Each structure stands twice: as structure tokens, then as C-alpha cells.
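The following record pairs a protein chain with its ligand, adenosine monophosphate.
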Amino acid sequence: MKSVNLVVLGTLAFDSIQTPFGKVENVLGGSATYFSLAARNFSEVGIVGVVGKDFPHEHLEFLKNKKIDLRGVEKTEGKTFRWEGYYEYDMDQAHTLKTELNVLETFEPKIPDEYVGCEYLFLANTDPEIQLEVLKRIKPRHSFCDTMNFWIEHKNAELTELLKKVDGVFINEGEARQYCKTPNLIQAGRKLLKLGPKKIIIKKGESGALFFSDKEFFVAPAYPLEIVKDPTGAGDSFAGGTVGHLAKHQEFTDAAIKKSMVCGSVVASYVVENFGVESYKKLKHEHIQERYDTFKRIVAFDHEF
Ligand code: AMP
């Protein structure tokens, strides 16, 4: 059987979301869902995750039709992970109303042999104990993780252990401040580097993202949009676009990461224009190319001082 270049561990979920521009209930979501739908635009990608018996066949078919490898997705007795949240007018931060772990509580990841030793592993937002176990079993060439306030509060020690073992971290600004106990993001980036990971990316929503390594500091803007209906999945889509593009070009340099972050910003810009995964139903390569080209134009300036 064919091996997979990029693997993501994360949630497949039912999301209920309210923003000032509308409301949806029990729609397809989850960190692994958004990540893989973004990454598949650049690289083959496989998911390690779990769903309950209530997870509709049509959602799995949708992901399969997008050529996402689902050999690591287990369907088990019980209910699928559920998340309910809302955004206020500035849409900057998701406010969680309810998190139901359900099948995630007893999840024992099944890892296909073809995923072991993959080039890139993305440990998307999920229980850090599971992230640690999957990292140990897959033994990828390069690994990244993400996390969120829920795990910073409930499993802080396990999260610290994980951060010491991965090559790179994606974390959003609020969570970087919370975990590093500092209001300043530059200090937070430096603190995270000190734990061990060589590449730190702090996501700042519509203000873009910051990249830190031992040699580089880089600011990637977010793509400026007139319409933002639902920011859910923007962070995972940004990570999916970034790591998917890195995996395609097989380069783990700072220069490659900077360019890949722009691809991540472009993909995320499409997902927030509609609720849930709706935008991914129509997203094509030429759309990504178009906004990538616009990006080059809007961030270019004369370097002569
Ligand atoms: P983001 O890209 O950060 O907007 O992440 C959105 C996705 O994260 C949603 O589709 C949720 O299903 C998922 N999610 C929310 N809370 C958690 C959690 N505690 N663990 C894992 N995934 C979560």
C-alpha cells in the first residue's frame, strides 16, 4: 500500500457556530478536517482520528472525494466529538460554549503502517497525551503541533512535554499569551523557542502570523477580505496550507516556511468567507494561485530607504 507524505492527528467534529452573520448547527468541523482540506491542495494527506457511529457516511465520502486518506480514521461506538462556540463582532476570538469529548475520551489511535516514518506529522489541536503517543508511534521526519486554551488549562504538564519534543509549533496569540504567561508575543515566541522547538508560528487571526526561529523573524499578513462570515477553521486551514506546501516542496528551511505561510494565509482566506467547510467545496488551484499573486503585489515595497 502507498505510504503517505503528510499525516494529521486531530478531531473530526460536529460544530455548532454562531457569528454576527449567521448560525449553523452540527456541521462538519474539527481540527483534522480543516487541516486536511487545506493541505490536500498541495500534498497527499492522511488523517488519524476517531468518529462515532452518528458520523454520516456523506462526510467521510466528502473527505475521500477530496483525495484525503482516511485509513487512520476509526468509527467507533459512541458519539462524535462536538464543539459549540460563538464569535462577537470583531470575530477575533472563538468563545467556547460547550466541548463534548465523547469518543475522544477513550480514543486509542490506530495508525496504519503506511503512516509510520512519514515526512511531516501535524499534531492538530487535540488531547496532548494522544498527541504525544502518536508522535512516538509515527516517528516522522518533521513534526508540528497546535493546541488551545482547553488543553492549556486541563493538561498543562502533558502539553509542556509535547512542546519539548516537536520541531515546530503553531499557536494562536491568546493561547501563546496564556501558556507563556506574558502579554507580549515576541517574548512568548522566544519562550517557546527555549523549550526546544526550532520553528514557532504565532497566529494572529486577521492580523496575520509571526514566525520565530533561531535566525529569523517574519511577519505574514492575513489576506485582506471584505467579507468574513465565520472564522472557524481559519487556524487549522492556515496550518494545513503552510505544512501542506512545505511537504510538497520537501524543504524544511526558514525561507521555505515563510513562503509556505503565505500559502497558508491564502487558503485560510477562502474558508472564512463561508460557514464551516462550505468554501472547500468549490476551492480550486487557480483560486489559490490568484490570491497568492495578489499577495505578492500587496506586500511588495521599494527596499531603498
Ligand atoms: P480553528 O482553526 O482554531 O478555528 O479550529 C476550529 C475547530 O477546532 C473546530 O472545527 C472545532 O471542532 C475544533 N475544536 C474546538 N475545540 C477543540 C478541542 N478542545 N480539541 C480539539 N479540537 C477542537
